[in-house]
Amino acid sequence: YGVDSRYNNDKYDLEHGKNLLLARLERLNTVSVKDIQKARLLQLYINMQDFLKMGGTSSKLRFTDFLINYINILYSKHREFADDINITSVKLSHILNGHREPDEAFIQRLILHSEMSYSNISSFSPEIWFHVLYHGRTLDVMAKKEHWSKKENKNVRFTIA
Fold first, then answer.
1. Exposure on the CB side of residue 70, measured as CA atoms within 13 A
2. Which is more confident, 144 or 105?
3. Which of these, 37, 68, 78, 145, has the minimum number of CB atoms within 10 Å of its CB?
4. What does the alpha-carbon distance between residue 26 and residue 131 come to, in Å, rounded to a whole number?
5. SS3 state of residue 55
6. What is the DSSP annotation of 97-126?
7. What is the pLDDT of residues 5-61, one digit of tens each?
8. CA distance readout (Å), 54 to 36, 62, 66
């Protein structure tokens, strides 16, 4: 139940905690599946924007994490999403598992699909999928700089005096 440190006694805590829980349960029972879906899509979009604002090189989030979340919000099976954007479920599986990079056609279809799904929710910036994809790639490259810089340093010269 809800506990608030401002309450002075247990009886007051318990009474208001129960009332809070009942109010939340009543609200939850009146929320439609579409409302929950809209809220989750909006939260995903906000998370993508936050990811793009993040500096540095350490992040566990990647394009595929956002894509999986997007698909799971809208579909019960990934195959249904693959059908809706006219790709094979094998190709989608490869992209989701990091075995294949998404090609331009995939991103274009994802953008069109996203514009449709966000049409009644909020203004959707379609290029965000490209930004998330390339921001994640940049973070990956920079996180491995210690490894690749020693190897590639021998291939680089600076001759301007």
1. 23
2. 105
3. 145
4. 40
5. coil
6. TTSS---HHHHHHHHHHHHHHHTTTS---T
7. 655 666 667 777 788 888 888 877 888 888 888 999 999 999 999 888 876 555 677
8. 27, 12, 15
Spatial distance between the Cα atoms of 3 and 72, rounded to a whole number of angstroms: 33
- The token pair at 41 is 């899509």
Cβ neighbours of residue 25 closer than 8 Å, sequence gap 6 or more: none
Residues 135-155 have a mean pLDDT of 81
Task: Give CB contacts under 8 A, 24+ apart, made by 150-156.
Answer: none
In the numeric block, the tokens 């998404």 are attached to 102
**Cβ burial, residue 17 (10 Å; 0-12/13-18/19+):** middle
Q: Is the separation of the CB atoms in 51 and 60 below 8 Å? A: no
Q: What is the pLDDT of residue 1?
A: 46
Length of the chain: 161
In contact, 85 and 74? CB cutoff 8 Å: no
